[in-house]
């Protein structure tokens, strides 16, 4: 993640990146860091099983056995 941030990439992919982090950093990751990247015009794909932070997403794509089961947009992202 640090290398990607330093390289200022346009797209970031985090696959369960915060899963092993302490609760305080996990909250920071979803509520501060990811919104900051979005505000800078970055595309972020964050894979997570932690439904406490699904509300932070523009879209929640639920998959089951490798198939898309649903796509939900947040109310905040309706205009994006």
Shape category = globular
Strand order of the largest sheet: 1-2
Oligomer: single chain
Total number of helical segments? 2
> What structural category arises from helix and sheet content?
alpha+beta
Give me the count of strands: 4
What does it look like?
This protein is α+β, with helices and mostly antiparallel strands. The protein contains two helices and four strands; from the N terminus they run αβαβββ. The longest helix is centred in the middle third of the chain and has 17 residues, at 23-39. The protein is globular. The model has no long low-confidence stretch (mean pLDDT 90).
Compact overview of the structure:
This protein has 2 helices and 4 strands, in the order H-E-H-E-E-E. By secondary structure, it is of the alpha+beta class.
Summarize the helices and strands and which ones pair or pack:
Blueprint (H helix, E strand, L loop, with lengths): L1 H5 L4 E5 L7 H17 L3 E5 L11 E6 L2 E7 L7
Parallel strand pairs: 1-2
Antiparallel strand pairs: 3-4
Notable traits:
80 residues; alpha+beta; two-stranded parallel sheet; two-stranded antiparallel sheet; 2 helices; 4 strands
């Amino acid at each position: 993640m640090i290398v990607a941030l330093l390289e200022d990439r346009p797209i970031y992919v985090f696959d369960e990146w915060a899963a092993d982090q302490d609760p305080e950093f996990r909250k920071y990751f979803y509520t501060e860091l990811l919104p900051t990247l979005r505000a800078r015009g970055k595309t972020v794909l964050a894979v997570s099983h932690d439904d406490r932070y699904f509300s932070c997403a523009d879209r929640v794509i639920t998959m089951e056995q490798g198939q898309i089961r649903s796509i939900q947009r947040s109310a905040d992202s309706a205009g994006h």
